[in-house]
Amino acid sequence: MTPNRHFSDFENQLKKTVELAHDEATLKSITSFWTEHLKNIRELNIFDHVTREMLNDVCERAITQYGFEAQIKMLFEEIGELIVAISQLRRSEKEITNAKVRSELADVFLMVWQMSFIYGNFENEIIFKIERLKKKLEKTIK
């Protein structure tokens, strides 16, 4: 499976979310929500504490030690845990906090980073998807 396949799945989920916005106010609300979360991602600066080389080394070692298939299965598990945590937080279950969601996001981030060693660097795909989404959002909001 190629990185493009994974991004296509993500894109389809994003399209479904946008389709739920039946009016401009709802679309703006969704956009505002994601803008705030993307701001948090942009401000993520793990490389103040961990070097890129250290992150790459740990991820490569994990893949070598556990194997490709095990790490792909772990990605699925971590994404599932993130989905559950966000769902429980949205339902206001008291034992789930933003800290739990952030912890699950960190797990998914590490697994996605590992996937770049399995499927190849996907920076160009990210740039392409961001530019395409930006164009779609500009068309939709007008």
What does this structure look like?
- By secondary structure, the protein is mainly α.
- The protein has a domain at 44-141.
- The protein contains six helices and no strands.
- Helix 3 crosses helix 4 (68-90) and helix 3 packs across helix 5 (98-119).
- The radius of gyration is 17 Å and the shape is globular.
- The N and C termini lie far apart (36 Å).
In total, how many beta strands? 0
Order of H and E elements: HHHHHH
* Tally of contiguous helical segments: 6
End-to-end distance:
36 Å
Low-pLDDT windows of residues: 1-10
Strand content: under 5%
Average pLDDT rating: 79
**Class from secondary-structure proportions:** mainly alpha
Tertiary shape: globular
Main beta sheet? none
The rounded Rg comes to 17 Å
Helix content: over 70%
Topology readout:
Layout: H1 3-19, H2 24-42, H3 52-66, H4 68-90, H5 98-119, H6 123-141
Helix pairs in contact: 3-4, 3-5, 4-5
Summary of the model, kept short:
By secondary structure, the protein is mostly helical. It has six helices and no strands. The protein is globular and about 50 Å long.
Structural features:
mainly alpha, 81% helix, 142 residues, disordered N terminus, single chain, 6 helices
